[in-house]
Each structure stands twice: as C-alpha cells, then as structure tokens.
Fold this sequence. Notes:
- The chain is α/β, with parallel strands linked by helices.
- 37% of the residues lie in helices and 19% in strands.
- The strands form 2 sheets. A 4-stranded parallel sheet has the order 5-4-1-6, with helices on both faces. Strands 2-3 form a two-stranded antiparallel ribbon.
Amino acid sequence: xxxxxxxxxxxxSSRFFGKPLENILGIPMIAHCYERALMSDCDELVISTPNxxxxxxxxxxxxxxxxxxxxxxxxxERAEETLRMLEADQGETYSHxxxxxxxxxxxxxSEINSVIKN
Length: 118
C-alpha cells in the first residue's frame, strides 16, 4: 500500500484572501497542516496549489509542491489533478490518496491515519 497525502491550498479564498500563508502563532497555516500530516502514515505528502507564491514558499523550505490549474472549484478536483500529474510525470502509483485540507491547522495525525486504515 502506498499512500499519497495531498494538501490543496490557494490564496484566493472567498472569505479570507491569503489564508494559507497567514501566521498562526508565528507559523503559516499551511505549515501547521503540513507538519501534522508529516506525523501521519502517508508515504508521500505534496502541497497542491495554483499559486506560485505558495509553491515558492514550499520550495524555500524543501516542501514538495505542485502547480495545478486555477480553474478548480473544489479541493477534490485539485487533488485529483495532482494525483494524475504525479502518476503521469513520475510514474508513481498510489493505492490511496488522502485529501488533507490546507485550512485545518489542528488536524490530528491520528485522524489522517484513521482514514488510511478504513
């Protein structure tokens, strides 16, 4: 079993522009999500975004990130595009893809693991 965790993030939130890079206790929201997801049983994690500012922030920190279309209306569409791109470009195959919301800084690794196991 090979599990991909996808964290979709975009700057253009309708209620809170720039939310992924907004600091919570001095740390950007997306970093909280990523660090918690790292503690889960996902084999690989990637930030999926249409925004170069988020991608560049990730790359500066050696966090895997992929640029996706800016036409997606839902996080699940962005996650699907990410999966297809990784499978096509890198020849990867995943048994499970977990969508980890980029605006849930308190997500528990145990919650992610529960999704993987069930």
